[in-house]
């Protein structure tokens, strides 16, 4: 899962704890970890959902101002048949 550096910094700072992905096949699993440029992330719950189900609260947890801002971002993403809500947290420096 590729995450932009500014988003990674927000996750590390505890400002973001949720990401959304649309893809053809998932690349992370619940309970797994992800090595990134800022350190190790923990992957929490992963929920299959539809983009229309994203709430204002979830959009804000993912670093968006609101659902409209989330939709603008979604329009820039590659197409995929699977849309997921993924909980993330910062674990620390990569060992």
Briefly summarize what is shown:
The chain is α+β, with helices and mostly antiparallel strands. 23% of the residues lie in helices and 33% in strands.
Overview of the structural elements:
The chain is an alpha+beta fold and 95 residues long. The protein has helices at residues 5-12, 56-61, 67-74, and strands spanning 18-23, 33-36, 39-48, 82-92. The chain has a single domain (5-92), classed as Hypothetical protein (Archaeosine Trna-guanine Transglycosylase, Chain: A, domain 4, Roll). 23% of the residues lie in helices and 33% in strands. It has a 4-stranded antiparallel sheet. A hairpin with a 2-residue loop joins strand 2 and strand 3. The mean pLDDT is 94.
Question: What is the element layout, followed by pairings?
Answer:
Blueprint: H1 5-12, E1 18-23, E2 33-36, E3 39-48, H2 56-61, H3 67-74, E4 82-92
Antiparallel strand pairs: 1-4, 2-3, 3-4
